Amino acid sequence: MKPRTSMKTKVYISVLAVCLSLLTFTLVFADKAAITENGLVLLKDDGTWIATEANLPLDGPTAMKNIDKAMGMMMGGPEDMKMMQEMIMKRHAEVLAKGEKLFNDPKLGGASKGISCASCHPQGGTTGGKAEIPKMHGYGPFQIPIPSLIGAAASFPKFKAPNADIITISQMNNNCTAMFVGGKRLSLNGEESHALTLYVTNLSKGKQIEPGKMEM
Ligand code: HEC
What we know:
Blueprint: H1 4-29, E1 33-35, E2 41-43, E3 47-48, H2 60-74, H3 78-103, H4 117-120, E4 130-133, E5 142-145, E6 158-160, E7 165-167, H5 169-181, H6 191-202
Antiparallel strand pairs: 1-2, 2-3, 4-5, 6-7
């Protein structure tokens, strides 16, 4: 068995290394960040800090670089912290607005039936009507009551019959995109899916999270 002290030493050295690199980043990156018109934070000498596309291939080195830059800003003092917070809030609002737009977009996923999410879930609620699932595998058609989405995201992940499995809220959005809006399923790594998920999840703001909860 290896002596424990050598492990401890390794930890100390790693911590020291991290602190040193943070310090370096602070010195190098403080005062070098700028917010562009479209809300991107750029580091003047080093390109994009937060990407517009949430589906960038986030490999290890890219992730570490982004974390280093964020840490650099955090260590840059209260001004930089405030700037970073404002930037994040702005990005949040942007993506939320985009989600709302997609929710109201009858062309979502290339659809052409003239139906958007909001046609059945107006402002995240329900028309109070029913939606029809066409005949499949010899069963149906079924008339299903349209639920309100207020609080819905708080019950995910949960079981859904069409998938015969536990699914996330983003996958559920895709179910409705495919079954009802008539569009193609959005890539779960893509910005559109993230935006729609933020909008739908935001409809559960303040609700208690109860994964798996079924309305009976
Ligand atoms: C034609 C009407 C219709 C349209 C359009 C529609 N939905 Fe639905 N939605 C339903 C029905 C019916 C259900 C219940 C089906 C189920 O739970 O499996 C449902 C369920 C959901 C649920 C799960 C609610 C829960 O509590 O389990 C979410 C989330 C949802 N829809 C989001 C969306 C989004 C996002 C869109 C647009 C991409 C959309 N819906 C478009 C009818 C519709």
